[in-house]
Structures are given as C-alpha cells and as structure tokens.
Amino acid sequence: MFDYGDPKLTTLAFQLHDMIRPSGVLFYRARYDGGKTLLEVLANTSMPVNQTLDRILMPDNTIGHLVVEMGQEIVIDDTLTHPLVRDSGAVHNMGIMAYLGVPCRLNGEVIGGISAVHQHRRNWSQSDIDAARWAARNYEAVARDRVERQMKKGWSDPDDPEKNATD
Fold it and tell me: 8 and 143 in contact (C-beta within 8 Å)?
C-alpha cells in the first residue's frame, strides 16, 4: 500500500510541518514482530530528531508505538517530566522533548500514525492538535483509496506487492 518516501504522505508531512513548525514530522505504519510494535517509516521531514532514522524504528526509541498500542492521541509538552515516557529511549537517545501523536485507522484498526516531535519543551496548541488530526485523516483517506483500488484489481493482500505480481 505504501513505500518509503510515498509522495502523497511526504507532501502531507511537509504540509503539517509548515502548519505547526515542530522539529520534525514522521508518518509511519505499524508492524508487529514477536509481540513488539515496530514502526515502519513511510515519510518524514528531513531529520525529525536531528539524526538519520532507520526505516524500522524499535519501540525502545519511539513514542509512536504507544499511540498504536493505546489507539489514542498522545500529547506531551515536556517528555522529561511525563511518567509515560520520561525514562524512554525516545527521550534520552532520540532527544524528543515534546511529542504530538495521532493514530491512523483503516476499517477501525490502527494501521500507523503521525508523530510531530520537538527538540525543546513546547506547549502544543489546540490548532497544532487539530492540524495533526487533519493530517491523520488525510493519511487514512489515502490508505482507504489505495486498498479499494487494489481490491478492484483483485489483489489478495493490498500490503504485499510480491503476492500481487500478476497485475
């Protein structure tokens, strides 16, 4: 359904970045491996945490995995004092000091999300949160459209192009 650097998601990531001016924006898809929630980076704005990101992010260094696992928005103005993340690698290894995350759903299931991160403490405004929600709904619309298009083509698994090589 999505490849890394997807043009539509990349455009959305930069639009959200322009709207709320965080240090960076990340669009990701949830992957599950051995009971762990891994995040596959689909699009991001340059280097959101001032370092190159791997394509697959381990839960130890993310807050987005909590967005997926909890299935809800997470808004943190100061990660150093927030009990959910203050001892995490996302704070101490990645340098995330403020975080705004919104889950993205397809057919009611969380498929991934959007993270806006900041390298300094920050008070996220309601308009920042609304902008992230807007971007998440657009991500969902793109996903929904692609699944519908792929199903019309008769692809059995819209997320696995190898299984669908007959097209």
Answer: no
